[in-house]
Amino acid sequence: MTNRVTTRQARLLSRPCVALFVCVLAYAVPSFAQNSTPPAATAQPPHIAWSQLSPQEQQALAPLREQWAQWPPSQQQRFRQVAARWQSAPPPQRQAIQERLGRLASMTPEQRAAFSARSDEFRALPPDRQQELRRAAQRFQSLPPAQRQALRQRYERVPPAQRPHPRSTPPRSGAATGKPARSK
User: Fold this and answer.
1) What gap in Å lies between CA 5 and CA 7, rounded to an integer?
2) Is the same domain home to 23 and 114?
3) CA–CA separation, 131 and 101 (whole Å)
4) Nearest-angstrom CA–CA distance, 85 and 79
5) Is residue 23 part of a domain?
6) Torsion from C-alpha of 129, 130, 131, 135, nearest 10 degrees
7) Based on the domain organization, do 18 and 98 belong to the same domain?
8) Where would you tag: which of 112, 118, 136, 160 has the fewest CB atoms within 10 A of its CB?
9) Cα(50)–Cα(52) distance, rounded to whole angstroms?
10) Between 7 and 175, residue with greater pLDDT
């Protein structure tokens, strides 16, 4: 047997190579063309002018009117979703939503960035931990104002590095009420 390749064998071997080349070329050309123009999915939507909002949206988002043009379009879209929920909410919830929007509007950009980071961190927590933190916040809010102020001052005296982190274990029993924990 010789190692010589016949013309017929060479043609048979080259067919898969040509087919492979055509396939690679077929896949490469569309992807090259796609890279020349940015995909529509990554294009940011244009800013929404306040005048483009419906009267109901303007009513719901009234606390944000002064800063409306400063918000990025993605945030404006989220606010529109809030306005849609506001329209179907009962009056007490409507008032609470507008109060939260008012607090957000009064924050500096740095405060908003810190708030956003904390919110993202909270949403990353497991649902059971989120519930624990919500219950602790409700307990705190139900305390008399003087006791809440005393707890805030006590918290501020603790160096930031020693403060509990939301991902850490839940506080000792009684920590949210200001009562000392029972020793074992």
Assistant:
1) 7
2) no
3) 23
4) 10
5) yes
6) 100
7) no
8) 160
9) 5
10) 7
What residues make up the domain containing 126? 50-156
Of 49, 67, 61, 53, nearest to 106 by C-alpha is 67
Residues 62 and 17 in one domain: no
pTM of the model: 0.52
17 and 54, same domain (yes or no) = no
Residue 175 in any domain: the answer is no
* Among the listed residues 117, 101, 112, the one whose alpha carbon sits nearest the alpha carbon of residue 66: 101
167 in a domain, yes or no? no
* Residue-wise pLDDT tens digits, 30-64: 444 455 555 555 566 788 999 999 999 999 999 99
What does the pLDDT look like over 84-119, one tens digit per residue? 999 999 999 999 999 999 998 999 989 988 988 998
